[in-house]
Amino acid sequence: MFISNAYAQSAGDALGLGGNLTSFLPLILMFVAMYFLMIRPQQKRAKEQKAMMDALAKGDEVVTAGGMLGKVAKVTDAYVTLEVSSGNEIVVQKQSITVLLPKGTLKAL
C-alpha cells in the first residue's frame, strides 16, 4: 500500500551513460581548447624567459621591464648590474629583464 512497484529499465534507456558523457563533451572540449590556447603557450614563454635569464652573461645588451637599455656588467643569482651609460651602473632584479638584444644594438641607437 505504501510501497510502489519497482520496474526494470527499458532497453531504450540503456544508453543513459553515453547520454551523460555527450552532455559533458562540450565542457571537456572547452578545457582542452583552453589548455592549448592559453596554458601551454604561457608555459612555453615562461620556459624561454627562464632559459634567457640563466644564459645572461657579461657584455649582453638587454631591455628591462621599465624600458631601460643597458649592457650587463655583472651577473649574480638574483641581481644584474647594468651599465646604462659609460660610468653609470644600476642594479636590477634578474626577473625584470625582458628582452635580450643582438650585439651592437646600443651603439646603433
From TrEMBL:
Record has Protein transport as a keyword? yes
Q: Name one GO cellular component term.
A: plasma membrane
Q: Where are the transmembrane segments?
A: 20-39
Q: Where in the cell is it found?
A: Cell membrane
Matches recorded under InterPro entries: Preprotein_translocase_YajC
Q: Name one GO biological process term.
A: protein transport
The protein's UniProt keywords, in alphabetical order, are: Cell membrane, Membrane, Protein transport, Translocation, Transmembrane, Transmembrane helix, Transport
Q: Carries keyword Ribosomal protein?
A: no
What does the record say about its membrane topology?
Single-pass membrane protein
Q: Which family does it belong to?
A: Belongs to the YajC family.
User: Know the name of this protein?
Assistant: Sec translocon accessory complex subunit YajC
Organism, scientific name: Rugamonas apoptosis
